[in-house]
Amino acid sequence: MKLLSSILNKFRKNFCKKDNIKYIHFVFGTSLFFTMCAFPQERSVSYHPTDYVYKDDLQGLQNCLRLGRGVDQRDPFFKNYTPLMIAAKEGEYLISEYLIRHGADVNARTRDGHTALMMATFNRYPEIVKRSGADVHTMTLQGHTAWSESTLEDRKIIQELLIKAGAGTK
After folding, report:
1. Domain identity same for 160 and 99
2. Is residue 158 pLDDT above 90, yes or no?
3. Is residue 169 domain-resident?
4. Which of 40-54, 67-81, 89-103, 114-128 tops mean pLDDT?
């Protein structure tokens, strides 16, 4: 409003008649209206890529990444997970493969050192991340590895997969 008043005050000096001021209001108002109609502001939904992974929405994730969000953008509200960590933890094969193909860091770590492979191993989905070349020897701050995550509940099938990948008791 102050901007409009200052513009009108400058024009008042040049136009003494009140009819001219009404005309200026009309021209300025209509030009502002049509400018807003011609260039509508894009409605942005600020979902993070991790939101789409939680919802198992591959198409939404693809659109989100196309709009410029990072493939390794961490979840700001939950445990600082990357989209790949969540997909690996939840067993989302298609989303995991999509993220890996588009450059997701398979060795990204949480604050305490967990990786997507450790989360997938603990939840019985290690083949999701292992095929991508994830490091099987990475340790958490507590000293856990993907191998120790698999031994927490005697998961023999997962241990066999990790042995084939080169993990073991070091």
Report:
1. yes
2. no
3. no
4. 89-103
**Domain range for 6:** 2-38
Residues 6+ apart with CB under 8 A from 141: 112, 113
Of 135, 68, 71, the C-alpha closest to 102 is 71
Q: What does the mean pLDDT of the chain come to?
A: 78
pTM: 0.64
Q: Which CA distances in Å does 4 have to 8, 32, 72, 74, 133?
A: 6, 11, 45, 43, 61
* Cα–Cα nearest to 118, from 138, 133, 93: 138
Distance in angstroms (rounded) separating the CA atoms of residues 16 and 80: 64
Smallest Cα–Cα separation from 166: which of 124, 127, 137, 145? Answer: 137
Q: Give Cα 148 to chain centroid, integer Å.
A: 29
